[in-house]
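Suppose a colleague, Dr. K., hands you the sequence of a protein chain of 390 amino acids and asks what its three-dimensional shape might be. Before reaching for any lab equipment, you can write down a predicted structure in token form. Begin with the sequence itself:
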Amino acid sequence: MKFLVLGGGTQGSAAAYDLLRAPDVEGVIVADRATVSPLPFLQEFLERGLSVEQLDVTRVDEVRERMAGVDAVLCALPFAFNYEMSRLAVECGVHFTDLGGNTEIVTRQRSLDGAARAAGVSVIPDCGLAPGLVNILTQRGIDRLDSVESVRMWVGGLPQHPRPPLNYQTVYSLEGVLDYYTTSGLVLREGEPLKVESLSGIEEVIFPEPIGVLEAFHTAGGASTLPGRYRGRIRTMEYKTLRYPGHARLMRDIRELGLLDEAPVEVDGASVRPRSLFIEKVGPKLREGDGRDVVVLRIEVEGVKDRCSTAVGYELVELYDERTGITAMMRCTGFSLSLTALMQARGEVLEDGVRTPDEAVPPDAFIRGLEARGIQIRETVPGGPGGSGG
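The predicted structure, expressed as tokens, is then:
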């Protein structure tokens, strides 16, 4: 099998690394607008299946040329490119998956469903950590119960050694993080969708040591289309981001001061976008840590099984890989993307067409795939003490 990875940043590189370790993968092309050397953990594959190429994805004919002859395309570009890249993949008759993050774009991608079915390919957007892995686990929990009353999801990527004042380090695009902090989140209340302000609804969540006490708050994007799919069928559903205590209030103050605004302002005769200035000034400081991160995830699905009130739970604590230098966020996000693409190319997804991961990816097989990569999900189920999913 052959794969094309669009975007040679951290997540695209992690996905390429994971693909290249699979015995049935012949080659992986990593295509990026900039010509840069592969990250250290990819160097060993330069003579064994990895090809790094320059590509401007706005040049449609060149994109089509790269897509020809591969089995699947993985898009690790900013989400603004996802619709056009998925359209071209369908046109070329190849499977497609992306990291997502914008539910409106996913809605546009659904318009490609008929064409994807006719071409015999699957398009699965929103296949990172959140959205992505969290949605697949949530769906598994929902399927385990006869009826569901509430679903709560908490996910966060954190530095192992936080540095004030934000106690945060960038583990993916800071622009993307700020989008989540400034766009309304979507929850279900009494079975109906409700928009909630990002950085609101702060609550305390406790994980085992050495993680300890974290704070959770509403953000956009993480639940993807789940609230819409379960409108009227599940009473309560919400997704929250996890950070160290105090982060949300500080970021809310920064936002209220206008420092995350997108509309340009005049400064000494120059037009300046406040958010760009914030990223330019603060971004480097959020990359000054040692890079050792942790991903934490918890899901609680409450409802009824065999006429008894019960709950299904999932928990993940994933640490930076000291051997390879691959961050926990890269493993949980990039590996989720690559695992989905492998399942597409192997014919293991549920059906062709455009489907979100909770609709298209068999959860048991996905969890086994994560475990094979050393990513352990702890599951608690009705009548069982808990343990790894399988």
